[in-house]
Amino acid sequence: MDSAAVSRAIPSEHSYRFLIRDRDSIFATEVDEQLKAFGMRELRTPVRAPQANAYCERLVGTVRRECLDFMIPLGEKQLGRILAEWVTHYDQGRPHLSLGPGIPEPAEVFLTPQGHDRHSLAPDCKLSARAILGGLHHEYRWERIAA
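^ thats the sequence. predicted structure below, dont judge the formating
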């Protein structure tokens, strides 16, 4: 495996320090060497502990169910663009029930109409939607109506 292949697999816009992987024998020693050359440390999952992969399996399943089951990428570049847009939506726009529901990284402050119950609109606000992945998902927010 050459360094170009590793740099495609690990985007350089982030400063990664660790790579978590299982103990499968399919990984060559060249991968370990390239990771060290990138200044990364490899962390292997515990021996005979399949539950250690649960977090990765959950994320891969979520990506598949919410994104890739509905899209057909025609190449590696398009797949990268699709996944980049989905990750932004996942972190900044998609509510997570484990957070109460909340959003891990709120991208902007959402306006909440004051003095109104959740079933009525404030007279100076409107609800706007933004299409994600060509309309596969939508993000909603309150916007003030210009006076």
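The CA atoms of residues 39 and 66 lie 33 Å apart.
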